């Protein structure tokens, strides 16, 4: 019995989990950041469970936290996304592969080319997570003294997207004739020279690769600020977001989808998938104990560093047992900072308590049994808080094993999640149409 | 019986061969540019034959030739190197994987990170072919109106190399302590912040990935101009070159290796591997017939385009049956242009004859039986014209099959080439030492 709408499930991961205590959790793989065989194991299990996509979180800098805190963290040193996902493409057949690429610190020609190549290698399973890169330390690795301002980052992101998608459309489907007899390899009338000259970029094109099998790799977007929501409504096919609860999720869902008709887009073709930290136990109490045990492994130095990142401000000098002091406005992610301030206000948390929340995992969490979590996920789907989730595993491999062995079968029994892949591409899994080529009729 | 020195063999490839007539050759794969399964087949055969490395040629633009010529060519639209080689890393165990990355149109932080990641994924099999990108059309895809001048490209390349290798040394071998008990994931005293501020780049670091398994991926360099030779002597561990004959090769070999002692480098640790186009027949006549058949498949429009690239000047307006006219000095590869002029002068070729040579394959060619080619390769090795070759296959898959089934066994019988891999990494295959970390003693 299938529901009218089914859940879409992505796995949003770092190799040792996003939770900074996870590398110390019993049975974990502390070496997973540089151990490809672990990554292969994870992605194959997710594919066997029919996940829509594997989604690798990314960073463009090591620093941005005090060194005494940094040394506790396993999250920032690991594989680079394109090399990792391409290698995983070669050992999987169906699961989607979503990579992050920054519009602030990369070139549209490179980004368009790499995603097109990943899409060809994977036979249509690539997705591009468009990020504007909030970490101010990244700028220092790319020759910039000061970080690019928030508004300008989004303006550049929008033009970057236009150039990349324009480059993907460089060749019509039938451009490559490969006519051995006549000697014509492709038809130049079916090739478009983009000749883009904009505010931020000047890119001639054409791209030196055929149009991706999906037309365009699926477009993923993560910003929740005002310009982030507008960019998502205009361009995204998957929104990756972090609402704190169902009410906030429903408001975000309605807001972003509500912007789409005016732009001429069908809200059906944008899937909103909040990050959800999933901790499964045989009982709800056992699940809570697991989470408490995990959070207990987060060193305070690491916790305060995570809070610093969320604030875009070094919090290590704050009084741990006092309230969050006033901090100056900065250029860091506005969404992240707003969430910290809201959490601090709503729950009257001290700096230490806030830090421990952020050092563990501060976002939306489903902590319970497979049945209770399936109930919650169903409610979110039915009440239009989301179209599915990007699952965050608390620890690896056990947290992933629990999801694929306990939660996914429960969702499948309820008709809330596929038991087999029906299509071959990431767009097929997500129920997204193949974009028309803007320069050529198919 | 092994020789004192053995040959090193790389495969220098485009998916459908570098020869622009190859896609029309009987039994070929005209669709190989976007067919990953063909690439997997090729690299696995090369690994079974114990090749040192698979080396993918690259381009950063489609254009730079008249459209009527471009349409005949299969060489410029294909996979992007990092995505392709990472995927191939996942389906191979021992063969080296050399990718091209441009120092003119990319960022040192990105390049350092991707090669380190490929080296981790492949367990020490990555090599970086440093190119400065001679194609003036590439500049137009990266926001530059005019191509960067030859001398400045090399100055930038040298600084780019310093930054990349410095970033690779960001972490000592023992930096990642992963001490579950104390909660220390890495030792910050074993992390180096590069803080590079130079003429061309300002890059703070550290790189957000552990030091590559090889220390540094093997460094490959291809320029033969004066600054190219000097850069190679200073930095390269493999020189990829295109001498026209053994005498030219010996001069180049002696020149580059002769520069090394003064720099404090051991010439043993630089392997000079000319590109060699290898056509094998049961008799020398049959091999020549194969080559003639292949060259006959090069359309004149494509031939004249190749000549244009070699000259860095549109040759389509020249009289096909006249001599090469005078052409103005440009910013294109000086080595390439010098070779055309030399060939035209020495062999008194018309524009058409020159174009047909360049449209087919104009570089060093060994055309004969497995035994005659083994003789030639042995002579080059013994007389120090080279330390091996980057084999260019005339057509695929047959040309590759001929090399691995006929030539490699002949070289193995003579003790000129390994029968088994002795080490695990590309550096092991090439006999190169693992570079010390400049910031930390091992």
Automatic annotation (TrEMBL), chains A, B:
Does the record carry Methyltransferase as a key word?
A: no
InterPro entries, A to Z: Diverse_substr_monoxygenases (IPR051260), Luciferase-like_dom (IPR011251), Luciferase-like_sf (IPR036661), NTA_MOA (IPR016215)
One of the record's GO molecular function terms: oxidoreductase activity, acting on paired donors, with incorporation or reduction of molecular oxygen
Q: In which family does this protein belong, per the annotation?
A: Belongs to the NtaA/SnaA/DszA monooxygenase family.
Matching Gene3D superfamilies, A to Z?
Answer: Luciferase-like domain
What is the name listed in the Swiss-Prot or TrEMBL entry for this protein? LLM class flavin-dependent oxidoreductase
Write out the entry's keywords from A to Z: Flavoprotein, FMN, Monooxygenase, Oxidoreductase
Q: Locate the Luciferase-like domain: which residues?
A: 28-386
Give the residues the record marks as binding FMN: 58, 100, 150, 154, 225
Keyword Transferase tagged: no
